[in-house]
Amino acid sequence: MSNYPIIYSDRLKLVPLSMEHLSIDYVEWLNDIEVYKYLETGGNYTLEKLTAFLSDVVHKNILFYAVHIKSTNIHIGNIKIDPINTVHNIGEYGIMMGRRSEWNKGYAKEASLRIIEYCFDALKLRKITLGVIADNQAAVALYYKLGFVKEGEYVDHAFHNGKYCNVLRMAIFNPNSNS
Question: pTM above 0.85?
């Protein structure tokens, strides 16, 4: 059982990821090239692989949330801050919006704002970082809208879509931190 609380926003409910999220829908997201094309993992998933993954997340008590639409309780994606480095008070952000029928409705931004707020206010993180393939224009635009800034760029760092691509390193800083 997770030590993290359920987090609410206007339209969403962020629930700690658990074995209750095991579903054929979730497996289908992980096998959908449009969903995973910019992610490190995805493709060739089975219920057994997803079971092992979810078991690992639960066992390690990772800050990893399932994103649900509040009005229907439908699971539409996941968001995480992992790993969290408690010495430096930084965490690594990641998001996957799996249910394509819910894309372009602002849910990724809404979930991201709430998880960032939780990490800054409740966990007192001073900085949240992320890595994103530079070609992923929609994600890069979202991160800038959220307040992330580009800290650097790894050249020809990740093999994606048949070629080596640049990876941006971005961060957002806690405005209430003394860093």
Answer: yes
